[in-house]
Amino acid sequence: MKTLFGCAAAILVATTAANAQTTIIERDNPPVVTRERIELTPAQRTTIYRTVTRERVRKAEPGFAVRLGARVPQAVELSEIPAAVIEEVPTVRRYRYMVVNNEVVLVDPATSEVVEIIRP
Q1: How many CB atoms lie within 10 A of CB 8?
Q2: How far is it, in rounded angstroms, from Cα 61 to Cα 99?
Q3: With 40 labelled, which of 69, 77, 96, 108 sits at a CA distance of 20 to 30 A?
Q4: Where are the alpha helices (DSSP H) in 21-113?
Q5: Where do the structural domains in the chain lie, given as residue ranges?
Q6: pLDDT, tens digit, for every residue of 82-117?
Q7: Closest C-alpha to 69, from 30, 36, 99
């Protein structure tokens, strides 16, 4: 009886150890892209919106659904963030923007992802 119990315990330990070391790598799935969250205060959002809309930038007709995390096609023209905005909100320095449907859309140029939409 002790031998049977000892064998069962050894098999259980060996199986558990083998399962704990199993690694599954899925190469066929597209990579998951995570965007960092931009934390903007209401005052910062207002500064960005007012300054950008004063610039009289040509409004974009993007041809894609503008939503957070969406990829912007390369054909869409993005503008540099104005220096006045960077002085007030330095965290947006690395982004570009476009104006669509009276909204300021911030885009990460490294990933071409929409990272923030600022509405009036």
Answers
A1: 10
A2: 9
A3: 77
A4: 42-54, 83-88
A5: 42-118
A6: 999 999 999 999 999 999 888 999 999 999 999 999
A7: 36
Q: Could you say which DSSP state residue 35 is in?
A: P
Fold for 42-118, please state it. Answer: Nuclear Transport Factor 2; Chain: A, (3.10.450)
Within 1-120, residue ranges assigned H as helices are: 2-20, 42-54, 83-88
With vertex at residue 91, the alpha carbon angle to CA 60 and CA 111, rounded to the nearest 5 degrees, is 55
Q: How far is CA 53 from CA 2, 32, 119, in A?
A: 81, 33, 11
CA distances to 33, 71, 111 from 28, rounded to whole Å, are 15, 20, 20
pTM exceeding 0.90: no
Spatial separation of the C-alpha atoms in residues 42 and 61, rounded to whole Å: 27
Look at the block and give the residue holding tokens 């950008």: 52
Distance of alpha carbon 85 from alpha carbon 56, whole angstroms: 15
Instruction: Look up residue 98 and give its two tokens.
Output: 């476009």
Give the β-pairing of 113-118 and 103-108: antiparallel
